[in-house]
Design goal:
33% of the residues lie in helices and 27% in strands. The chain has 266 residues and is of the alpha+beta class. A four-stranded antiparallel beta sheet has the order 3-4-2-5, covered by helices on one side.
Length: 266
């Protein structure tokens, strides 16, 4: 299956362009996006970024848009007046640029994912946390592993809650269908459950494009500590047995993917 990178678009850099941002709160109805996007199209406004998300009730939604007014025949304020003519629109907030050619969403806070607060780390930030910090000694790698375990335990609890809502009870089904999907959708990598057994707890988990291990390419040794801890923590929560994970293959030492053997801790 073809894979594509997806820009989550929290900011936009377009030197020389007249950019504005808009946050629109609306009722959820069929055809909303087509109606809202038709207005900029009529006035030669380009939409470089648009995100739309309904709340957990499914009744109200927030749309975030970054618009390019460089060749537009109306102002941002005029656009807002036109958008507010729709009865499903409850509120419109203009996000004004602080400098020309740069716009960022400075009004959405906190960011959430399925009701939980979420924060975003770009590679320049997590490189310092996961790679550069290792210069302080091997004890840091142990710390990263147990940090991952604790995070994994919490993720596992959430995955079980989601599974309960969907009527899924078997740990292996929860891991394959929910844990694996959640790992992939937040950008950690592309996880594949090669093998998982519950009677005698054991798993082999494969990860392509592991975000942690990409930082260690060229080191010639397994590089994952945070991610392998997360895998161990999630499986511990699902199986009810304290598990440990060992990285047997790693892109940091030239393998085509990272692979983890997970078994009960002795």
């Amino acid at each position: 299956m073809m894979r594509y990178s997806f820009n989550i678009g929290r900011f936009l850099v377009r030197p020389g362009r007249k950019l504005h941002g808009f946050l629109i709160k609306s009722k959820v109805r069929p055809g909303i996006l087509s109606k809202l996007s038709a207005i900029p199209a009529k006035h030669n406004i380009v939409i470089p970024y648009l995100a739309y998300s309904a709340d957990q009730s499914g009744e109200t939604a927030i749309a975030l848009a970054f618009l390019d007014f460089t060749n537009s025949d109306i102002s941002p304020e005029e656009l807002v007046r036109k958008v507010k003519q729709y009865d499903f629109v409850e509120e419109v907030i203009i996000i004004k640029p602080k400098i020309n050619g740069f716009i960022a969403d400075t009004v959405s806070n906190p960011l959430t994912m399925s009701g939980d607060r979420a924060v975003i780390f770009r590679e320049p930030g997590y490189k310092g946390l996961l790679a550069d910090i290792r210069k302080f000694g091997p004890g840091i790698e142990v710390f990263l592993y147990y940090l991952g375990v604790e995070a994994g335990l919490e993720f596992g609890k959430k995955h079980k809650e989601t599974a309960k809502k969907l009527g899924i009870t078997k740990p292996e089904e929860i891991y394959r269908n929910i844990s694996e999907s959640m790992f992939n959708c937040v950008g950690y990598g592309l996880m594949e459950t090669v093998k998982i057994k519950t009677r005698l707890p054991y798993a082999i988990i494969r990860v392509h494009n592991c975000f942690e291990c990409e930082l260690g390419i060229g080191t010639g040794k397994p590089f994952s500590h945070l991610v392998r801890g997360m895998i161990a923590g999630v499986l511990t929560a699902l199986l009810g047995v304290k598990m440990t994970a060992i990285e047997t293959k790693c892109i940091a030492k030239g393998d085509p993917y990272c692979e983890f053997e997970v078994k009960p801790e002795k």
